[in-house]
Fold this protein.
Amino acid sequence: MIEKISLYILPLMILLILTCALFKKVPVYEEFIEGAKDGFKVAVSIIPYLVAIIVAVSMFKASGILDFAKNFASGIVPPDIVPIMLTRSLSGSATLGLFSDIVKDFGPDSYIAKLAAIMVGSSETTFYVLAVYFGSIGIKKYKYALITGIIADFTGIVLAILAARLFFLASSV
């Protein structure tokens, strides 16, 4: 039943919106074009923020901090999980790529894959959100949002490590 509903829900919603617009005499095409223009303006306005994130990630990779962090955290977490810990706040796509590599290399039922899955699901792309969403609407004062986001990301990482140890490491011993 749900599969049948899911096949028809989007076309029905579009039809409902167009029907309501017709009755209210809304010029749908013109409104669509205006929305597309606004969307393009937003896309152009966030390009500098996206470039800044790309440059930051590239500098991060080239700086050697990743190797230092792997060595530093090797007693707490598997070294292959460290890139996820460090990139999650910057880029969801990069983190998903790293997660995919971990699952491919270690298997989906491995402790490290389960830890990585919890970590990916328990934190946010803080810097991406600040750059794209705040940048697109022109928010310049985001100090408290940044602090809150970093604290939330750190808490998510710590709790992911604890949860993975509690549920998956203890059960395999």
